[in-house]
Amino acid sequence: MNSNDSSTSLIMIFGATGDLAKRKLYPSLYHLYKKGKLADHFAVIGTARRPWSHEEFRENIKDSIHSFVGADEQIDDFSSHFYYQPHDVTDSDSYIQLKTLAEELDTKYSLQGNRIFYLAMAPEFFGTIADHLKADGLTDTTGFKRLVIEKPFGHDLESAEQLNAQIRQSFPEEEIYRIDHYLGKAMVQNIEVIRFANAFFEPLWNNRYISNIQITSSEKLGVEERARYYETSGALRDMVQNHMLQMLALLAMEPPIRLTTDEIRSEKVKVFRALRPIEGNEVNEYFVRGQYGPGTIDKNEVVGYRDEMNVDPDSQTETFVAGKLMIDNFRWAGGVPFYIRTGKRMTTKSTKIVIQFKDIPMNLYNNNEQLQPNLLVIHIQPDEGITLHLNAKKSGQNMQTNPVKLNFSNEGSNGINTPEAYEKLLYDCLHGDATNFTHWDEVALSWKFVDKISEVWEQTNSEIPKYASGTMGPEEAEKLIENDGFFWWNLNDLDVENCD
Predict the structure, then answer these.
(1) Which entry of 31, 181, 243, 379 is annotated as an active-site residue?
(2) What's the distance, CA 279 to chain centroid?
(3) 243 catalytically annotated
(4) What is the per-residue burial (b if ≥16 Cβ within 10 Å, else e) of 123-132?
(5) How do strand 338-343 and strand 320-325 relate by DSSP bridges?
(6) How far apart are CA 228 and CA 236, in angstroms?
(7) pTM for this predicted structure
(8) For the segment 141-159, what is each residue's pLDDT rounded down to a tens digit?
């Protein structure tokens, strides 16, 4: 049996009683199991502080599957592969007991010593767990070993460097899988295919034909139970440093010489290196922050951020960020802005990318009416699909134009029901494919860029701009893009339509 076969893996989940494990990890593993991508040669050890037995843990697994997947006859067989150990992440005795259980399951399920350590824990424990895994012998195995880490990876560049140095004492870079769940989304992965597999896009994908690119990720929800974390993070660290910059890198990168992990990462890193640094007085010219106030969401009155539980009533934490990023390389130099926008308590829950092409030099079909620009819209969530906005002749005798949309939807009959992002990422990790995980070089360069912005905001004494809940952000965000002669596209107007 090949030790790299995903059917021979022991998965240890630290934080196995937490919300992430219940909502995402267990349903995703179950989908892989039902699809035959987890055979009988796998086992899962869950660890947490709760004094559960194996049976109590398995009942929790079943509850998770019932809640997020539904009833199914394979749940009992699936949950029988799960084991539990009460665990103290700071105590070597706990790791020694964990090693004993792991070796027993290695033999029982013929796992060949293959181990995945998934840290679904608070970030302050990442380094401690990594240290103990090596010191207490859990990484002493003949099979593969991989460490999976959730964001955030550090709070700034300095803390990220310290964490990385600590973890690298126990795991080499190629064994570290830093999850950015946006990279597991089907349409984010589709960006490369759209660009590099279509002859009519890639030749136009440059400063000669594209006027601007807009990336928007908006949420209706407020901070909810994440207020304590959010107060020390804000939208800049929570969304821009990872998700938004990762999507930008995929949109801006050069074609890799081959579709391998190293080559794709290399091109993404080049984008981060080409990002025009924004610092000092330039920050307020290129970036806007905001904080949601009271307003209306789905006809319900909601409170402002400062009135949320566990939030400082004088908080200056941003719940919204909009920015203009410039990439100084051959493909994009000359003034193609990449606009990003992300926030909570906005009008709609949506993640969309809008590529706006330049107008043609002479408009023969003006008819006293401005032609609509050509747009390529990539719908990431909640809908998944692609829309191409074109101009065509109206029906009738005159030569007036009419905007039309060509749609592809993953929800349509020609599409597929795409897997949950975590399902895709877990599958990749099992197979040792780190393409859709972030490399340390990407993490370091993104923190280096973001830190310059947060430093200026933290030293600013002026009141943070406010926006009413249920709107698309503060007025300053509109002015940011209007100063360049553009406007934010209305996300609802761009919604994908299901294909027949």
Answers:
(1) 243
(2) 25
(3) yes
(4) beebbebbbb
(5) antiparallel
(6) 16
(7) 0.93
(8) 999 999 999 988 999 999 9
